[in-house]
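// run 5 | inverse folding | seed 20
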């Protein structure tokens, strides 16, 4: 009868609602992962795995190579995942071939040891990844942010034949004329007994909020449950994050990009948040001095997390840069 049908249909509706509420209250980390899964699906991104020997890479991709524009390979920053690019992918053309890979040891990519976490080690692994999925069959555009920007720049220096161009977003690995707020805090911590406390590796809610303020100029104002979820997903990886951090700030990697700038021959685009508190925007001038033909874009009212704070702008700048490179290439052909 009708009342029974209403009860049954109501029950069908209530169960997922209750599941959602329960997840939000008790397993916010799981819910955040489910949200990323939903967002990837909505954007048409599919998760894949590729192997190089026993080493496994996890990546998401959309589209097929060989289109009107080069493929994009996106490298995320320290302690992030391939999903940090979701806001940017949202604003890329739907037919643009794009690949977002989990960096060595992060999320679904194999976790090995320190040799893979220094910048040169990461470059070697990303080169393996490129070959494993056949991305090197035609020149592609490489994008990296922060730690990923350091890796992207060094990759461009050592594997120029793979690339048509590169975008470095707030890259680490330079000698910066001005210390950032993050570097200043690290120096202060080194003087105290809190040497194990790293602002980018939070262990409490307050430390997580402080990290987000450090990374984003625009306040995120996230609900407490979302913050709980973020912390819950990060905490089990903190030991790994510390191992990676010690490698990338160590003597071998600290200035990797700076030391390899003279080897970069590909066209380079630089995007930097003017209010970056993690790696100071003065690094943009360093890149312009070493790579006079590079295109520099400094974004007002934007911090270190360009992909989160200005995703539409970042996507548009990258696509405009690719279009400009294509025009330059055609003009060069006509002149020859």
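// decoded
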């Amino acid at each position: 009868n009708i009342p029974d049908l209403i009860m049954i249909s109501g029950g069908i509706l209530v169960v997922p609602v209750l599941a959602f509420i329960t997840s939000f209250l008790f397993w916010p980390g799981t819910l955040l992962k489910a949200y990323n899964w939903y967002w990837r699906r909505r954007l048409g991104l599919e998760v894949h795995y590729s192997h190089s020997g026993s080493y496994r890479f996890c990546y998401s991709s959309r589209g097929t190579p060989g289109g009107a524009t080069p493929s994009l390979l996106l490298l995320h920053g320290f302690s992030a995942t391939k999903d940090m690019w979701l806001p940017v992918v949202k604003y890329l053309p739907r037919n643009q071939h794009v690949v977002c890979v989990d960096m060595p040891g992060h999320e679904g990519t194999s976790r090995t040891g320190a040799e893979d976490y220094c910048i040169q080690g990461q470059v070697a692994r990303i080169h393996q990844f490129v070959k494993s999925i056949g991305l090197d069959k035609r020149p592609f555009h490489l994008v990296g942010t922060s730690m990923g920007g350091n890796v992207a720049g060094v990759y461009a220096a050592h594997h120029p034949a793979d690339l048509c161009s590169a975008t470095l977003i707030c890259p680490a690995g330079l000698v910066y004329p001005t210390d950032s707020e993050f570097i200043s805090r690290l120096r202060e911590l080194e003087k105290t007994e809190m040497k194990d406390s790293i602002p980018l590796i939070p262990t409490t809610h307050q430390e997580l909020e402080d990290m987000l303020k450090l990374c984003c100029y625009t306040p995120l104002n996230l609900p407490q449950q979302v913050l709980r979820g973020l912390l819950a997903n990060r905490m089990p990886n903190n030991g790994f994050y510390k191992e990676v951090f010690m490698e990338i700030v160590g003597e071998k990697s600290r200035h990797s990009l700076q030391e390899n700038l003279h080897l970069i021959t590909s066209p380079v685009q630089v995007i930097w948040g003017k209010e970056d508190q993690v790696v100071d925007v003065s690094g943009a001038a360093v890149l312009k001095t070493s790579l006079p033909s590079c295109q520099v874009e400094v974004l007002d009212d934007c911090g270190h997390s360009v992909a989160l704070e200005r995703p539409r702008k970042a996507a548009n700048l990258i696509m405009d840069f690719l279009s400009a490179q294509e025009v330059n290439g055609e003009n060069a052909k006509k002149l020859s």
